Structures are given as C-alpha cells and as structure tokens.
C-alpha cells in the first residue's frame, strides 16, 4: 500500500480519536464546574450568550490542541517505526538558524 495513503489514514484516525476523547472529557469537566449540561443549542432561550461563547471557545481550543498533539505523536511514532517522518511531514525538531 502506498505509504502516503497509510499516513493519511493514521493521521486522520489519531486526530479524530483525540477529538472524540477530548470532547467527552470536556463535557465531564463542564458538568463538574458548571453543574449543568453544556449548551447544545446556542439559539435556545435557555442558553445565555456568555455560556454559548464559553462552550464554543473551550471546545474548539481543547479539540484543536488535542488533535495536533495526537497527530504529532503519530508522526513521531511513524518515524520510530520507519526511520523517517511521513511524506509531507517535515522534521518536528526546532529548525536551526
């Protein structure tokens, strides 16, 4: 199988899995902190604007960070298994000047 296709699958699966797990953890955290369910419909009269914005920002940030961390971890695991980063993924170490 083409290495590029395999990497795309690995990157996709790791990112999606991280997003799902993070979202579930965020719901649990919201329930503990706020004592209510997170807002699911920002247009509902029961959802305040600050509540809707807080949920949107928290969920977007948490999922984006988790996906990036998971994909970076997958790239490092790929390198450990194959000896090089996947095609299209440059070295993750800091560039030297």
Largest sheet: none
Distance between the termini: 37 Å
Structural class based on helices, strands and sheet pairing: mainly alpha
What pattern of helices and strands is seen along the backbone? HH
Total separate domains: 1
List the uncertain runs.
none
- Estimate the helix proportion, in percent: 55-70%
Oligomer: single chain
Total of DSSP H or I helical runs spanning 4+ residues: 2
What's the total number of strands?
0
β-strand percent reads: under 5%
| Rg result | 18 Å
Mean pLDDT: 86
Note the overall shape.
elongated
What does this structure look like?
With 97 residues, the protein is mostly helical. The chain has two helices and no strands. Helix 1 (3-34) packs antiparallel against helix 2 (49-82). The model has no long low-confidence stretch (mean pLDDT 86).
Could you give a short description of this structure?
This protein has 97 residues and is mainly α.
Layout of strands and helices, then pairs:
Blueprint: H1 3-34, H2 49-82
Helix pairs in contact: 1-2
Question: Can you give keywords for this protein?
Answer:
mainly alpha, 97 residues
């Amino acid at each position: 199988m083409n290495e590029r296709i395999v990497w795309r699958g690995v990157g996709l699966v790791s990112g999606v899995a991280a997003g799902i797990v993070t979202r579930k953890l965020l719901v649990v955290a919201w329930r503990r902190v706020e004592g209510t369910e997170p807002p699911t419909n920002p247009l509902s009269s029961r959802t305040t604007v600050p509540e809707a914005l807080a949920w949107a920002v928290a969920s977007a940030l948490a999922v984006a960070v988790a996906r990036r961390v998971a994909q970076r971890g997958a790239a490092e695991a790929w390198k450990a298994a194959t000896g090089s980063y996947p095609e299209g993924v440059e070295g993750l170490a800091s560039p030297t000047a």
